[in-house]
Amino acid sequence: MGKFLLAVVVMLSGSSLMAQQKQAEDAAAFEKDIQRPGIQVFDVRTAGEYNTGHLPDALQADFTKKEEFKDRVQYLDKQKPVYIYCLGGGRSSAAAKWMRENGFANVVELQGGINAWKQAGKPLQGVADNEVQLTIEEYNKAVGNKGLVLTDVGATWCPPCKQMEPILEKFFQQHKNVKKVKVDGGKDVDVMKAIRSSGLPTFIFYKDGKEIGRKQGVMELAELEKLSFPGLD
């Protein structure tokens, strides 16, 4: 019996060690695997680098900004595979090590990063093409209307923003009188500075052109409603 228990302990220890070991794939294998359902693709470069082109449907958090990284990574599912990359592999390797040590069951790195991806002739999404920013004048006009307006400062590549999508959808279904103004957290830099929004997501409510409430981060529907209707209990 003692030998059996010892064997089980050794086997479990070995499994745990294997789970912590580095897993990496070349561009061809990486591309094939991220097409499977349930895969989370994670870009740990800066927002500026991300906007020069990224892998399909990739979420983003800057690994060099520790607080931002830790805030966003908590919205990934630890039980689902995470396929991670950066420019050349250094940052993603460090980020993957941290994630494995903090409970992520399956983190796979892109060997050589996005540089290797490009060299293999693989396609990128979202290549910056001189998109026109939302101007401050346009923003002020949009939120200056009578009635309630909700400004949603977010981005498709932001994990907590993705977490908020179904909550926002339900909110607007239930409150059709509230107008939505979208500010792109990766593009509309001037507006973000003007409204003092530095984190994603940020939600700002206006009533008849006057700000009545704001909050950064993920909220439940009831909290979002209370923010928009301050008298709501």
**Top-tier CATH class of the largest domain:** Alpha Beta
Instruction: Give unreliable regions as ranges.
Output: 4-20
The fourth-level CATH homologous superfamily of the largest domain is Rhodanese-like domain
Query: How many distinct domains?
Result: 2
Mind telling me which CATH architecture of the largest domain this is? 3-Layer(aba) Sandwich
What level of helicity do the residues show?
40-55%
Number of DSSP strands? 9
Shape: elongated
Percent range for β-strand residues: 15-25%
CATH topology type of the largest domain: Oxidized Rhodanese, domain 1
Plain-language structure description:
The protein is an alpha/beta fold. The protein has 2 domains: 22-119, Rhodanese-like domain (Oxidized Rhodanese, domain 1, 3-Layer(aba) Sandwich); 136-228, 3-Layer(aba) Sandwich (Glutaredoxin), CATH 3.40.30.10. It is 41% helix and 18% strand. It is built from 10 helices and 9 strands. The strands form 2 sheets. A 5-stranded parallel beta sheet has the order 1-5-4-2-3. A 4-stranded mixed beta sheet has the order 7-6-8-9. A hairpin with a 2-residue loop joins strand 8 (202-207) and strand 9 (210-216). One of its GO terms (molecular function) is transferase activity. This is Rhodanese-related sulfurtransferase. Residues 110-233 form the Thioredoxin domain.
Short description:
This protein is an alpha/beta fold. The protein has helices at 2-20, 27-33, 47-50, 66-73, 90-101, 113-119, 136-143, 159-174, 189-194, 221-228, and strands at 24-25, 40-43, 59-60, 82-85, 107-110, 148-154, 179-184, 202-207, 210-216.
